[in-house]
Amino acid sequence: MASLNRVFLAGNLTRDPEVRYTPSGAAVADLRLASTRVYTTDGQRKEETCFIDVVVWGKPAEACREYLAKGSPVLVEGILQFDQWQTESGEKRSRHRIRADRVQFLGRARATGEMGDAPADGPPVERVVPRAASVAPGPKAGAPGETGDVDDLPF
Fold this sequence. Notes:
Elements: E1 7-13, E2 18-21, E3 27-41, E4 44-57, H1 59-67, E5 73-86, E6 92-105, E7 108-109, E8 115-116, E9 127-128
Parallel strand pairs: 4-6
Antiparallel strand pairs: 1-3, 1-5, 2-3, 3-4, 5-6, 6-9, 7-8
């Protein structure tokens, strides 16, 4: 049976990107994305917001730190991954998150070159971060058992 694991999400960052480096020097950025779905039921407009954790590796992670901030609109493309770990007190924890291959910055560039709202007369500028596949991902610091490379899976 064939399978497909591909995710595309657009939304806004709920906080500034958090970037750290592995012992081998690879950059890792953690993003928190809010994606809101608007719908109507019984004639009333409703909103439902989903909060998603995103991890970005390599040069794209560094670009996220440089150009993104809380509230920045982005489009994320990647895979859904499931993480499991055990706390120091022995509790089992788990979460789903997106491992981004590509992050597209959707905001308008300011005159200073920063992301944000441009003057009304300025054209929108989109910045695209190169695919993370061009950078060899390393293990994520602090997550036991995670290799950081899905190409090592036996299937």
